[in-house]
């Protein structure tokens, strides 16, 4: 089957995105595409929805399906808004229908979208995480990892384990690599695996590096950055409101607001189109191949933006 794919990124978290139908073997397509193009972190499928403007499904490079993808949702938001001629929309995801909207550009010429991140839960069984008989784990060391790093577990709704680390542990990624790898193999704590982020407060925000479940280290993970902003606010490391979050692929803004019984999260960042790719997909994989690639010209502007904004975080990249 010949398909037209858009190669897109949010903070350099990179995907092939396309309109599809239900009941195709997208897990296998994700595995095939990521073995052909090792730049990508997964695929985004835009489907018809009976309750929203569209439905998004996201598959990691290992073929596992995730309940949410913050960076991907911004790209889907752009596609759906441009397709339907609107500036706001609702996108159905695995666990919730989420509000998305076109935003003021983060910088000249950068297509920018804001997306709701929800539902949020600190209940360990929502990840799931199992540790002794705890029902939540917030800003406390996990002694089998380290007595110094405060970890928090949260689902938004995909699962995140977030550690607040000093600059030295942010620069040397081997500690994070070891534990993230361990938690994403057969283990006693996370039966479905977990996205693991190390967060370091910097001058005007936080820096977040994420090892994604089903992928490995990524340039950025949108849900992880938003969950990290929330944990940093709860821990008193940054004030509530708009948190500037740097990552190896760029910078986003995460709005965190909290009343007595409600937390609201919104992720704002780029939705950049890289190229239009014609792909021949055969289910056996034998004849699957890229037929043509037509580069688009948005990445030059994105690179300029990154050069301007990432001086503070360059020590970690
Ligand atoms: N990159 C995404 C998250 C993708 C899914 C994740 N690997 C999982 O399995 O939960 C993001 O931007 O949120």
What would you say this structure looks like, in words?
With 317 residues, this protein is of the alpha+beta class. It folds into two domains: 2-117 and 270-316, Diaminopimelate Epimerase, Chain A, domain 1 (Roll), CATH 3.10.310.10; 124-267, Diaminopimelate Epimerase, Chain A, domain 1 (Roll). The chain has helices at residues 26-36, 70-84, 167-171, 174-183, 222-234, 299-309; strands at residues 2-10, 13-19, 42-47, 54-60, 65-66, 88-92, 97-102, 112-117, 140-141, 150-155, 159-164, 195-202, 205-212, 216-218, 241-247, 250-258, 263-270, 272-280, 289-295. The chain has a 19-stranded mixed sheet that branches. Bound molecules: the ligand N[C@@H](CCC[C@H](N)C(=O)O)C(=O)O. The record marks 160, 212 as: Could be important to modulate the pK values of the two catalytic cysteine residues. Pfam families: DAP_epimerase (PF01678).
Give the key terms:
globular, alpha+beta, 317 residues, 19 strands, binds the ligand N[C@@H](CCC[C@H](N)C(=O)O)C(=O)O, Diaminopimelate Epimerase, Chain A, domain 1, 2 domains, 19-stranded mixed β-sheet
Strand count, sense and barrel status of the largest sheet are: 19 strands, mixed
User: Tally the helices: what do you get?
Assistant: 6
Radius of gyration: 19 Å
Helix content bin: 10-25%
Main structural class = alpha+beta
Give the count of structural domains: 2
> What's the CATH H-level superfamily name of the largest domain?
Diaminopimelate Epimerase, Chain A, domain 1
Subcellular location: Cytoplasm
Protein name: Diaminopimelate epimerase
Catalytic activity: (2S,6S)-2,6-diaminopimelate = meso-2,6-diaminopimelate
Organism: Planococcus kocurii
